[in-house]
Amino acid sequence: MQRAAHTALYDWSQIVGPAVIRRCLKCRATLQQSSRAFSVIPPPRDSEEKEMLDRILRVDHAGEYGASRIYAGQMAVLGRTRTGPLIQEMWDQEKKHLEKFNEILAENRIRPTALLPLWNIAGFVLGASTALLGKEGAMACTVAVEESISEHYNSQIRALMEKDPERYTELLKIIKEFRDDEMDHHDTGLEHDAETLPGYWLLKNAIQLGCKAAIYVSQRV
Amino acid sequence: MAALLRGLRAGRALRGLGSVVATPTATTPQCSSLRRGFHCAALRLQDESKSDKPPSSSSTTYHEHYQAHSTEQDTTAASQEDSASDPAAETASGPNTSYQDQSGEQGEEYETEEQLQARILTAALEFVPQHGWSMEAIAAGAETLGLSSASTGMFYNGAGDLVLHFITHCNSQLTEILAEQHKQVQLGQAEPKETADFLRDAIETRLRMYIPYIETWPQAMSILLLPHNIPDSLKHLSTLVDDIWYYAGDRSTDVSGSHHPRSPSSSTHTFLSPLHHHPHNIRPATLQMNWYTKRAALTGIYNTTELVMVQDSSPDFQDTWNFLDNRIQDVVNMATTAKQVQSTGEAVVQGLMGAAVTLKNLTGLNQRR
Fold first, then answer.
1. Terminal-to-terminal C-alpha distance of chain B
2. How far apart are CA B120 and CA B102, in angstroms?
3. What is the pLDDT of residues A193-208, one digit of tens each?
4. Following CA atoms B84, B87, B93, B96 in sequence, which dihedral angle do they give, to the nearest 10 degrees?
5. Closest to A117 (Cβ–Cβ): which among B108, B122, B289?
6. Which residues 77-106 of chain A have a CB within 8 Å of chain B?
């Protein structure tokens, strides 16, 4: 094990050694500048790992951004009703998540998805239109979206655990925390009569299908 | 037996060399097979031959289509149709031990192919003013390293390899310079620059690296536009622009991710500063689309300035730097204008909302019953 690590390091240093051979790995010495103790993700060992982490964080960032816009849409319609404060509270939590991901992307020089304007509009429209169906509609939308997001976070957690739980402890901690928050929102939605909406099953599945498509695309573009 | 092998080898090498010399630029079709089997062990053997080692036969392998070595080489092995080059063979005993002082790399078992290619291309850069960005320059570079000019067969992208290597080299030099400046600022030994100035200096530094090759640079640019080179050149360009913005952004190491306290927040600066925290009533889309628009703007500036530089004949390219100044100023103005439009728009919307509420109050629609 140690020998393998040693040879891996040795090969690595051979490749990285001469400064002009960076193009092999798009090595950026700048990553080492952010102090490791505070950064959430470890400096990637190779371009494959970097790409995997990039995708994970890019889609998470897009997801939180979309969720934030959905709540914004819901607030625009239902902001002054009785459910206003509830939606506001959930919205604030999403904003916190978004900030955290902003930080991570900035620190690690990860490219945000180019479809952000699309998610901006689509999220707002989704939130507003479901809110127009009333409070139950907004809650149903919340339930559907939060369920998708939780599932998605769970699969990311599984993937990271499969790879190397120790290496990604901080990232796993953050994703777990956010997933728990999203599950809370999901449960809140259910508590507030989401299922009483006529056409609940149809709406829920349609939204979840849309979320899956959005996740797929955001990982790549 | 040894003499027979020698004769065979010499004949084959002569034939190979003849065909290579005849068509120095047409090595592309053979190169793929060459490359497949071409192993650095063979090159090491070449280095070894300088020291007049007795020929060794058994422990090394090289590809049968091996044509890229000169006839003066005296060490060979029985050639094998073996495309799976075997690194274990190199660490076998005997002839492998003496090359270490030849390769110039301290304490390493062998040199990778990429490292060798890099060395050849770096050496070839000297000959670019003379031969242009072409295989001749690479061949001349290989010769200064003591390798045969036929080793250009390694570069199946030919002049494109040379240009891309040069670009990579310039980019990494720029990154080093920017990192050094960044460090100076972090240590408090230098004043942080305004973003516009920083960008201008970074691009100027980067373009000045072309000055020694400026005569032949149009040729290099056209090589980069060839379809098979476009993905690579775009990748290098995007890396360059991303690096410059990263250093212009001066990310601090604190975790809070707050706006770095580097420059006074003027209205121009807020566009140019990356990932600055806007208050949440401003549409968050502008926060992240900044990532793309900034890089796109800088790419545009860089490319146009490069084009101007290529046909600039003023002393020390003063016209180019003036052009660069003006373009950066344009971007700054555009950013200011965009911000002004946005705040005007917001003010207008606020005014309209106020008018609407007033109307509703007047008509009594706003009362809850």
1. 113
2. 15
3. 888 989 999 999 999 9
4. 100
5. B289
6. 95, 98-99, 102-103, 105-106
CA nearest neighbour of A141 among A89, A93, A188: A188
Q: Which residues of A touch B247 (CB under 8 A)?
A: 30
Spatial CB neighbours of A148, under 8 Å, sequence gap ≥ 6: A207, A208, A211, A212, A215
Size of interface A-B (CB pairs under 8 A): 78
- The ranges assigned to domains in chain A are 2-35, 47-220
Question: What residues in A contact B275, CB-CB < 8 Å?
Answer: 102, 105-106
Chain A hits for B40, CB-CB cut-off 8 Å, are none
Task: Name the burial class of residue A195, with classes exposed (0-12), middle (13-18) and buried (19+) by CB atoms within 10 angstroms of its CB.
Answer: middle
Q: Would the CB atoms of B246 and A99 count as touching at under 8 Å?
A: no
**Tokens found for residue B151:** 């080793």
Backbone region of residue A110 per phi and psi (left: phi > 0; alpha: psi in -120 to 50; beta: other values): beta
Question: In which band, very low, low, confident or very high, does the pLDDT at B1 lie, cut at 50, 70 and 90?
Answer: low
ipTM of the complex: 0.72
Neighbours of B218 (CB within 10 A): 12
Who's near B233: CB < 8 A, 6+ residues apart?
A: B164, B167, B224, B225
